[in-house]
Amino acid sequence: MHKALIVDDEPRILSGLGELIQWEEYGIEIAGLAGSGAEALHMLEARNVSILITDIHMPEMNGLELIRRVGQIDDSVKTIVLSGYDDFHYVKEATKLGIENYLLKPVNREELSSTLLSVVEKINQEAERQRQIRSDAHILRNNILNRCMTNNISYSNLAERAGLLQLDLSSTHYTVCLIKLLFHEKHDQSYRGLMQYAGENICSEVLASCRAITFCDVEGHIVALFHGNHPIDSAQIKQYAEEAMFSIRKF
């Protein structure tokens, strides 16, 4: 559910917009109604808002300034502007700030609906692109680490790829810990893949404080690569591994 913040200094407009459409039908939840730009900024930082619907003409901080400030905080927020004036100057300035649409008051239900449908589709498409980018980066990362572990990559290639993937492989001492997940024969490949991915993420979180790089090898085992500039105590690694396995079992 996407969260929307509505901003207007007129209480009648705020309540009217909240009741104009069935927001949940668009996959939107109204996260807050703000009567000023300052109040809106406070709400935005606390409520993970993805859609901003704001009036242009407000005292102290007008809508254009609010949009600029919001963009500095989170440039992924989509903005819809409201105004009682068909003023080309405001339309032009708002357009420069990357708004999704400019609606005249009183707001037309159909125009608001079509705008929200377009905005939600855009947000979903961007989220899917980001998910795909993360997935591709994760696959590339695991591929490079597996090639490193099997001595199947040149040093120069490894250094270049590690830099791109922000992997710190500059340590002088390394210790490998292998965690094997055991499955019942009734568990299909989809379930096993899901558990391997979840187990890798759990290990990454549990071992984040001890300089361990985690990934899955080609057989689906979870590999924890402990590294540092001094010899690594095996008893300490065993303790870390047991903590990771305990967290996986709880999952």
From TrEMBL:
GO molecular function terms noted in the UniProt entry: DNA binding
Keyword Cytoplasm recorded: yes
Q: What biological-process terms (Gene Ontology) are attached?
A: phosphorelay signal transduction system
Enumerate the InterPro entries for this protein. CheY-like_superfamily, HptR, Sig_transdc_resp-reg_receiver
Its keywords, alphabetically, are: Cytoplasm, DNA-binding, Phosphoprotein
| PROSITE patterns documented for this protein | RESPONSE_REGULATORY (PS50110)
Q: Which residues form the Response regulatory domain?
A: 3-120
Top-level taxonomic group: Bacteria
* 4-aspartylphosphate carried by residues: D55
Name used for this protein in its record: Response regulatory domain-containing protein
What is the organism field in this record? Paenibacillus contaminans
